[in-house]
Amino acid sequence: IQAAKTASKFPDIFALVAKGRLHLSAVCMLAPKLTPENAPGLLEAATHQSKTSIASLLAERFPKPDVPTSIRPVDAGSYDPDHMATDAPLFGIGAPVPPARVAPLSAESYELRCTLGKQLHEKLCYVQALLGSAVASNDIPAVLELALDALAEAKEKQKFAVTSRPRKHAGKAQGRHIPAHIRRAVLEKEGGRCTFVSGNGTLCGSQHDLHFDHIVPFACDGQSTADNLRLRCPAHNRLEADRQFGRGFMDRKVEEARQAAPRMHEESATEAPPANPEATPYDPDHTAILEQREAIIPYLLALDFNREDARRAAAWCDHMLGQPLNALVKYALQQQMKLKRERCTVQPRMSATATSVAGR
Are 344 and 330 in contact (CB under 8 A)? Predict the structure, then answer.
């Protein structure tokens, strides 16, 4: 209704929506800012843009002032362990906590709003105490920036072998193993993003869960060299595999793996041995992990899991790469049941701490 009312004031919206150039959510986001003077340019800039991109566009053209940094306790209500209050339900459920939100305020600043638990708040206070006078006590964005810099450095070292003192290495890659110096070279060449380009020239640019992809597939004698490797997000990594081997072939391989997996009750469950990180096979492009997940999911679907829960439970077994399939499924079931028990347990209402932070 809101989109229809807006389109009645600016008829060009009807054609843009009909052609798929503008979605209804975009119309509703643009509605408060549209005027006869800025409508043509604003509608053109929002064409084929996501909600996140449109939010950034509006923040850039209509900037808001920075919000003050604040941390305040949230009243979660008084705890009544014996349920003596006449109007208190036996299984009281508190008001739902809104999810964390990051909203652009202007071209250079964002508002971060989330709720911190007691332990997380204590960690924040502890880090502030460790920093001492290096960071002002009310400068939460500076603390977050330092923490994220340290985390990014650790993860880049783990995944891409980024280091300030790289060693010279003249050896060649063996098999699927990608040496550290080649991973660093590919990261620099690709700019740390998925470099897939669509047919209309749109660059993906995703930085989420990047995989090393062989231009000439390893199965076709492709080598793990900097010139033959690129970065791909999960979706475009699968798309490249479909292009090389055919979508039917890839779908058939996945389906064969599902059909080959026997039902859970036909196997005797064995206790999974403790994970040994040193014995875990090296899997730089996550191929083995993805194949392991695809093998576990059919079991869970047969046990009346929905697909989302099955995928999450299968991901819990990533650290057990190489273990027997029945042990993996049993571990996934144990973790799922543990999660359900935690959800069903009546626990005291603990006070939380809400924080509203403006970070540049």
Answer: no
pLDDT at 279 over 70: no
Sequence-distant (6+) residues with CB within 8 A of 228 are: 214, 215, 216, 222
pLDDT confidence bin for 287, thresholds 50/70/90: low
Task: Encode pLDDT of 179-193 as tens digits.
Answer: 888 888 898 899 989
pLDDT surpasses 80 at 211: yes
Distance set, CA 98 to CA 28, 124, 200, 356 (Å): 22, 21, 38, 13
The per-residue DSSP string of 57-113 comes to HHHHHS--PPPPPEEEEE------TT--STT--TT--PPPPPPPEEEE-SSS-EEEE
Give the contacts of 143 (CB within 8 A, at least 6 positions apart).
124, 127, 128, 131, 135
**Could you tell me the pTM of the whole model?**
0.50
CA 58 to mean position of chain CA atoms: 24
- 2 within 8 A of 29, measured Cβ to Cβ: no
Residue among 326, 327, 331 at smallest CA distance from 261: 326
- Estimate the share of the chain in helix, then strand, then coil, as percent rounded to the nearest 5: 50, 10, 40
Average pLDDT of the residues in 113-132: 87
SS3 category, 232: strand
Non-local (6+) Cβ contacts of 97 within 8 A are 115, 352
